[in-house]
Amino acid sequence: MLAQISTTNDKSIHLPLKKKILLVEDEVLFAKAVVKRLQKAGFECEHAETLHDARLLIKQFEPDMALLDMRLPDGNGLDLLSDFVAKNVNTIVMTAFGDVTDAVNAIKMGAIDYLKKPIDLEELLLIIQKNEKTTDLQTSLDYSRQRDTVVNESVQLIGESAAMQSVRQQIARIAQLSALSDAVQPTVLIAGETGTGKDVVARYLHAHCENRDKPFVHVDCASLPSELIESELFGHEKGAFTNAVATRPGLIESAEDGTLFLDEIGELPLGLQAKLLNVLERRMVRRLGSTKERPVQARIIAATNRDLYEMSNEGRFRSDLYYRLNVITMQMPPLRDRGQDILLLAYYFKQLTEKRYALPHHEFSSNAMMAIQSYDWPGNVREMRHQISRAVLMCTQPQITDIDLGLPQSLTMSTTQALAAELPLTLEDAEKVMLLNALEQARNNVSKAARILGITRMTMRYRMDKHGIAL
Ligand SMILES: Nc1ncnc2c1ncn2[C@@H]1O[C@H](COP(=O)(O)OP(=O)(O)OP(=O)(O)O)[C@@H](O)[C@H]1O
């Protein structure tokens, strides 16, 4: 299980919690051995000898997983299994040697696995750990499924530059079209460097269309684990593969009549690009393991910070999919090209932070305003949001100066040079220098920086967090 803690920015951090396992077993000596072994392996464990006690513990202890014996003094373990399944508690049943019927019934009812007695403790531990990994992935996926289904009407798109006005006009036109006809809505592609506001534009578009009260499903193609991406997108039938314990609609289907936002579409594996193209062309989706096709009504918006045209020329992105996506394209300009919008955004983020933390009003000094306008913002609006919020939070004077902003340009040396100059470097420092260098080369594009270093995007993110590198 993962605890979600909101941070001051738009991301969340996940802290691992101890998994809770409830053992329902009337053989006391065996139960003690299991509890001891599981506690040693880092689990929190409770033991119930009867169905009655187990029912009380389900409420009080709220287990993540259960180990359930079939023959209990006050009834059959199967009677309790439905309680566990209803509460999404992954349950492994323990059956008497040779009792296949119970095991089959338990799996049909939703148990995730079964073990025959006598039970080998190490085998039991292996099964639990295997399940733990799958649930962790599932939990984070469930979270990403839920977190974006509601779009706040008040999504703000700040900017008056010609480029931003053109984006707004395009959005207004698309919204107008969606009000005019029930026909399939054209696909929208939002392109632009990282942090330019592609996600904001997708939400703003959804919030201004007829279907604004329908789900907005955000799929980050770069962070979905490759082994789960297909079933997550397309869904699956029960039994389509190991661990497919229940039928589950995919993210495409869960967008219903709303919006499906395919973020970082350039990261989608080639095999799935073909399947997605099929969905876009035929507006039908088929779950893994199913023969039935279901209609897809959702508006589809894709976003990318990569050059899909170049990728398609190099054979890394299907050109047919590129042309299919490229019906209406909105190009988000880099922040450095937005003229007066730079200061507008700086004031907006200053006020936002002051309001959020109930801080007194600040002004920017003229040097600060010059620094904001002359800096080239490689991380675009996201970088500005972080820098301004940090400066507002740390500034104890009524005026925010260029020093408070601490923009890299105002330093005599770049951060990486400064770090490298501090010899001798520890291994930790050397790693930080490599990360910063790669980010600098990739103009703060995390996926690109990860590729430069030959590591995955997730590893890159983890290492950036470790060194406190925020973009
Ligand atoms: N025009 C804008 N008005 C207000 N806030 C904005 C605007 N553009 C971006 N932001 C803010 O900047 C941050 C980054 O924006 P967003 O996540 O939309 O960028 P992105 O282009 O999707 O980035 P990435 O390519 O890394 O996914 C968010 O906190 C967002 O709220």
UniProtKB/TrEMBL annotation:
The modification 4-aspartylphosphate is found at D69. It comes from Methylophilus aquaticus. The keyword ATP-binding applies. Residues 20-132 form the Response regulatory domain. This is Sigma-54 dependent transcriptional regulator. InterPro entries: AAA+_ATPase (IPR003593), AAA_lid_NorR (IPR058031), CheY-like_superfamily (IPR011006), Homeodomain-like_sf (IPR009057), HTH_Fis (IPR002197), P-loop_NTPase (IPR027417), Sig_transdc_resp-reg_receiver (IPR001789), Sigma_54_int (IPR002078). SUPFAM superfamilies: CheY-like, Homeodomain-like, P-loop containing nucleoside triphosphate hydrolases. The keyword Transcription regulation applies. It comes from the Bacteria. Residues 157-393 form the Sigma-54 factor interaction domain.
